[in-house]
Design goal:
With about 210 residues, the protein is α+β, with helices and mostly antiparallel strands. About 15% of the residues lie in helices and about 45% in strands. Strands 1, 2, 3, 4, 5, 6, 7, 8, 9, 10, 11, 12 and 13 form a 13-stranded mixed β-sheet that branches. A hairpin with a 2-residue loop joins strand 10 and strand 11. The C terminus is likely disordered.
């Protein structure tokens, strides 16, 4: 059991582009802030950007991860089956997903209550690092800790994206790894359904979460 825990349920998509820009989308159906989406983007020159829909969300995410620039902009996600569309300030993105067999099916076998337990994330941390180079638990900024429990895993098969009106190129591996915090995204572009638990240094209310110290 994690004290002062905040829980987020939704999807994380990580894609690379042939221009060198890497994009991580968080699309949260349940959170202490209500439903929302945000985008973390790392450009070829290493600049890390956060695109968040509200100041309190931007403050919270920036307390967990590292960015060179933060923009508070509307972030809209339209998910229709395998086709996802994202509009976030200067970013426009459309990606499609396919199906994975084998290991990609394993998260679906895990009951939701078990997937949400930090203890399970601790057990899967080493296998996840060996198989995909990502971590399922770790220390974030500001005294926070995080645990990720995967519930589904789909490959991203194509992407069309532009930033400030400039085309970002075709789908590519997420390489080099993004540098927002302790976690990363799999090298192979993917969409993952997750339950994320954030252990906070203070109470678990959304109002407190929206005003963390930097």
């Amino acid at each position: 059991m994690v004290r002062n825990a905040l829980r987020f349920q939704g999807w994380i998509a990580g894609v690379g582009t042939s221009s060198g820009t890497r994009i991580v989308l968080g699309h949260w159906s349940r959170s202490p802030f209500g439903p929302f989406a945000d985008v973390m983007l790392e450009r070829p020159d290493g600049q890390r950007l956060l695109l968040a829909p509200a100041g309190r969300i931007a403050d919270f995410v920036a307390a967990l991860y590292r960015f060179d620039r933060t923009l508070t902009v509307p972030v809209a996600v339209d998910a229709a089956g395998p086709a996802w569309r994202v509009a976030a300030g200067p970013l426009r993105m459309r990606f499609t997903t396919g199906r994975w067999g084998g290991l990609g099916r394993l998260p679906r076998c895990v009951p939701a209550p078990l997937a949400a337990r930090p203890a399970r994330a601790a057990l899967t941390d080493l296998p996840a690092r060996l198989l995909s180079g990502v971590r399922t638990r770790g220390s974030a900024g500001g005294g926070y800790r995080e645990w990720y429990g995967a519930r589904d895993l789909l490959p991203v098969t194509a992407v069309e994206a532009s930033f400030e009106g400039r085309d970002l190129g075709a789908l590519a591996p997420v390489e080099p790894p993004v540098r927002f915090g302790f976690g990363s995204a799999p090298r192979t572009p993917a969409l993952v359904r997750v339950v994320t638990t954030v252990g906070t240094p203070r109470g678990p209310s959304a109002s407190a979460a929206g005003r963390p110290g930097r």
